[in-house]
Amino acid sequence: MSSLPSFSKSSSRGLSPATVGHATHGHAADSSQRLMHLSMARTHAHVIDCIPIDFVEPLKPKLRIIADRVSKMRSAQLALQKLKKHESDGTFPAQLGSMHLPSFQTSKEFTEASPEAWKTFNDHFAAAKKQLLTDAIAVRTLEVAELQRISDLEHAHGEVHEAAKEIYAAQLTTGKHPTWNQDGTIGAWVNNPAIVLIGERFLHDLPTFVNRIIAIENSRWDAEHAKAGAKVALKEAADVQMADATAGSSKTPDQTDKELAAALKRLGFSKPPGNPTAGGSKKKPAAKKGSATTQKKKVSSTSRGAQPHRLPKPLGKKPANKKGKSRRN
Known about the structure:
The protein has a domain at 15-102 and 120-236. The chain is built from 12 helices and 2 strands, in the order H-H-H-H-H-H-H-H-H-E-E-H-H-H. The chain has helices at residues 4-14, 17-25, 31-34, 44-49, 53-89, 94-97, 108-113, 119-151, 153-174, 193-248, 253-266, 292-305, and strands at residues 176-180, 186-191. Helix 5 (53-89) packs antiparallel against helix 8. Residues 1-28, 266-329 are annotated as: Disordered.
């Protein structure tokens, strides 16, 4: 008995949400007890696995659409925040920043006589860019409002609930259960109690499934947003440190040497201690006798005046007589 608690703990950690959910679905009459396993679901796939098998395939694409809508809503919110930051900072996004002031060539005489002629045109162009940024913020605001409306739990649940009711009705029609007469014959066909139990409980618990899909997607976006914010803060801190380091070492080596020489001169030193050649011209030290440089020169001079090396004559052979000389008798 003492090993049972540790076994239960390790088993519960290794079980999936679907395993726990399907195990408790049959005997747990209370909805809160049946849905405790959904708190373990961390991904969209975990929630899908907890759905009764007859509802999975028809509802899977609809739940995927709900998750995609939440993702699009968060993306639109992020884009709206960036546009508002551009407006407050007096800058423009890339779409508007790439719009350059049009240039129209005019004669030199007219430009010199009327240098302010294009001022109104330039002011209108700058105002137009600001107005375009304002219009873009307005459009993004409408997009976020619409995505929030269709991603709301009440709206999302309504779409999925209608599909789940149709599936449940089809199961009741095709899954009838017979009743038996005392003589062993079939009396009437009634709704299957197992199908009724599973279907009624799932329709009752469906809002929690939809809410969990929305919560998982929001949690993913919150984690990514926090990670991106930490990277930006780290980059800004590194840029500040680099700027401080650059400001502290802005002097060139020549300036540092001049200041050092002036300070030593005030202290009575003509040259920095430990550097006897400072302030004067650097001379190459003379080569000592017997040094490697001298020996190298001697070897090179000797090799230039030496005779070429001749191979020894082969033994046992006499030189051949020259042409034109006769042999002696």
